[in-house]
Design a protein that fits this description.
Radius of gyration: 52 Å
Strand content: 15-25%
Order of helices and strands: HEHHEEHEHEEEHHHEEHEEEEHEHEHE
Distance between the termini: 124 Å
Number of strands: 16
Helix content: 10-25%
């Protein structure tokens, strides 16, 4: 459903009635002016504040089951009846329009000359559809409407005879002039002529003709929308004119009222939606602003313009569980919004229901039934059985049993819940099993399973059957992780020298590559002692003529335990990281001659 046209799947049944409400608002804006005969404000509020009539009193006004009717009752108001049973209305716009033109004269109606085919709503650019107004123009949810959300005792529906369906009755203030016939068999042309004469009693026949003919062109539209009452009020409030429209209809819509309230709030983000409790039961009340176009054919200046209306709409489910009573009130006079919502709240409190006890009654007569026979399985049951059999067949041995639940199908993206179901002929009793076993499911969608009532979504999944564990194949290079007591700075234990090895001679003094080491001499702080001879230069130690003995590997523990850590080599104590690389010696190096004695004094 879109915010600008109200045409979504969720609340589409009410779109036609909302179009009728927008069209009435356009007529009120174009036709009701200062020359219109108006009721005083006291006529609207005179019946307010008193106790509402009970169901027995309302349903004795006229027998139930007659369809959409309304009748004015003295000191009570206009009693409306909106039911699901009753004869279907016949088209009568053309006949009523022709009769009104013959009565008032076949002259132009709002600049349109009647032709041989007569006049229709399309000649006047009707009907019109309201659009969502700016959110800042949304009217407030008045205290009178908010009071409907308080707790109260509900009334049970009255009993009706079998076949009467469900019916709603309510009381409307008599200031609303109805454009719908008082009963299905009434003369619509005569009724509209009387209403036009009452509204435009102080004007000429042209205004009466225009109003009556325009109302007649909308008769088929209101009947197709399930409208039982459509009326306009013309009041004088504090010396200024004030108009409002009221539309009461019934539509087919199944489901709880909470679901409908959620759909409305989602589809119309600019509206304010409440769930309230009426004496007739729970209901949803919606308040929003709508922009209503006024066609150029109806406007005085011939130009199309827009009027902003404040709208309150109530949805009350009927007892049959398949129908909803929709009541709408709209006014373009924002300053009188609190006045009209107070009357609207009292109107909702007067709603009474009656029911024949048949759920989802469609108004069609109940056919006689033969002796009960064993019901044949439906196509859905056959499809579910086929899905379950296929699931069992493809399950390999050793796997757990298929999941429990009821096989269903998820509807496809193009599924229409309001499309009529195709008639499926029941198979013969003898061949039912054979046909269903061989027939493939014809339903569209994806087969799924509905979980059983004892399904626990938080229960752990069943463990699969245990299989023989295989040794995992590790990737990478095996290394040794040092034990927790490993000390990287501890020296390795001394290894015993082999028996054949001789004690190595004392190593000569390491070479001093930087020349900082000198021979020790006696300290002479006064410089009077002369050395007898210059010290001999320190010779580099001879290079080894044989390679060092290999360090034996550590012996394995006696108990056969694997050594801990990774084996490495520790350099010997005489290791010099700055020594040049060793080269093999060719000849024995000769000792350098001693330096001659020198004297600092010559």
């Amino acid at each position: 459903m879109t915010q600008d046209g109200y045409t979504g799947v969720e609340v589409a049944p009410f779109a036609a009635a909302e179009q009728v409400s927008a069209t009435l608002g356009s007529l009120a804006e174009a036709l009701l002016d200062h020359r219109t005969a108006r009721y005083p404000l006291a006529s609207l509020t005179a019946l307010g504040g008193r106790a509402h009539a009970d169901a027995e009193a309302l349903f004795t006004v006229r027998p139930a089951g007659a369809g959409h009717t309304h009748r004015t009752v003295h000191r009570l108001g206009t009693v409306l009846a909106a039911g699901t049973a009753g004869p279907a209305p016949a088209p009568r716009s053309a006949s009523a329009t022709a009769a009104l033109l013959a009565r008032f004269g076949g002259e132009q109606v709002r600049g349109v000359t009647p032709g041989p085919e007569g006049l229709s709503a399309a000649h006047f650019e009707l009907p019109v559809t309201g659009e969502a107004a700016d959110p800042t123009l949304r009217p407030e949810f008045t205290p009178a409407l908010a009071e409907l959300a308080s707790g109260r005792q509900t009334r049970l529906p009255a009993e009706l005879a079998g076949g009467a369906g469900a019916e709603a009755r309510l009381v409307v203030p008599p200031v609303f002039h109805p454009l719908t016939a008082p009963e299905p068999g009434a003369d619509l042309a005569v009724h509209l002529a009387e209403v036009a004469e009452e509204l435009f009693s102080g004007t000429g026949p042209a205004q009466r003709r225009d109003f009556a003919v325009l109302g007649a062109t909308l008769a088929d539209l209101t009947a197709a929308a399930g409208v039982s009452f459509a009326g306009l009020s013309a009041l004088t409030v504090d010396g200024r004119p004030s108009d409002a429209s009221l539309v009461v209809s019934t539509s087919r819509h199944a489901g709880p009222i909470q679901v409908l309230a959620t759909e409305l709030a989602t589809a119309r983000p600019n509206a304010e939606v409440w769930t309230v409790l009426l004496p007739a039961g729970p209901a949803t009340v919606l308040v929003e602003g709508r922009s209503v176009p006024v066609p150029g054919r109806l406007a005085a200046d011939g130009l199309r313009h827009w009027a902003v209306s404040s709208v309150v709409e109530a949805f009350v489910p009927l007892p049959d569980g398949a129908s909803v009573l929709c009541v709408q009130l709209a006014t373009a006079h924002r300053q009188d919004w609190e006045l009209y919502t107070g009357v609207f709240a009292e109107l909702l409190k007067s709603v009474q229901f009656a029911w024949d006890g048949v759920a989802g009654h469609t108004g069609a007569p109940v056919a006689a039934q033969a002796a009960p026979v064993a019901p044949a399985p439906s196509v859905v049951e056959a499809a579910g059985a086929a899905v379950e059999a296929a699931a069992v067949a493809v399950a390999p041995p050793g796997e757990p049993e298929p999941l429990r639940g009821t096989p269903v199908r998820i509807p496809p993206a193009d599924f229409n819940p309001f499309a009529p179901q195709p008639d499926v002929p029941a198979p013969a009793a003898g061949s039912a099993a054979t046909e269903l076993a061989s027939a493939e499911p014809v339903l569209k969608g994806t087969p799924v399973r509905i979980p059983p009532p004892d399904f626990n979504p938080f229960a752990p999944m069943a463990a699969p059957a245990a299989e023989a564990e295989e040794e995992p194949v590790l990737k990478g290079t095996p290394v040794r992780i040092p034990p927790p007591d490993f000390n990287p700075f501890a020296p390795l234990p001394a290894e015993p020298a082999p028996a054949a090895a001789q004690a190595a001679p004392a190593a000569a003094q390491a070479a001093d590559p930087f020349g900082t080491v000198t021979t020790p001499q006696q300290s002479d702080p006064f410089g009077t002692t002369l050395p007898s001879a210059a010290p001999a230069p320190v010779a580099a130690p001879p290079m080894p003529t044989t390679p060092p003995a290999a360090v034996p590997a550590p012996a394995a523990p006696a108990d056969g335990a694997a050594p801990k850590g990774t084996p490495v080599r520790i350099p010997p104590p005489d290791f010099n990281p700055f020594a040049p690389m060793a080269t093999p010696a060719t000849e024995a190096e000769e000792a350098a001659p001693a330096a001659p004695e020198t004297s600092p004094f010559g």
